[in-house]
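Consider this one:
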Amino acid sequence: MLRLCHELPRYSLDMDFWFAKDTDFAEFFDRLSGMLDKDHKVTDSWNKHYSILVELQRAKGSPKLKIELRKRVAARGGAEEKIAFSPHFPRQVLVHGFTLKQMFRNKVEALIDRGEIRDAFDLEFLARKGVARDFTKQERGEILRALEGFKESDFKVKLGSILVPELRNYYRKNRFRFLEEWLSFEQWKK
């Protein structure tokens, strides 16, 4: 969503979705699997406790796409209509996606939970977009600890492989200096 609707300058590893309303997840999983089998090779699929995961491939040798559907209904008021687009294709699509405020909350939780460098990058992107600080003092400390834990190889390999080329050297050199300063600013308490 951040890349397709807000021009996030990194590539996605997967596509994550949430449900808009209560759903029979077992029935949905069966219908989704049947639909995807028609035009794609489903290389992996799981109906897990908290999410539905599907990995598919259009044709042998083509890239695989991982789709995760969280078995949760999106927070009321946390979504809005957006236009998804790509500079590489002329088509625009109207989608229902998280507000930037809700995306920020989701990214705070994701960074604290899984500690992936891509989530820290996304938080810095949202901070640069002017999204209001929405975290507790404890979450702030956990985010700062996560930022301190990233190694040089995380910036070179993990983050470097998904960033647009013109940003790679900046993040190798500066890491998340902007985000650290933004988190440390005194008015974060408001």
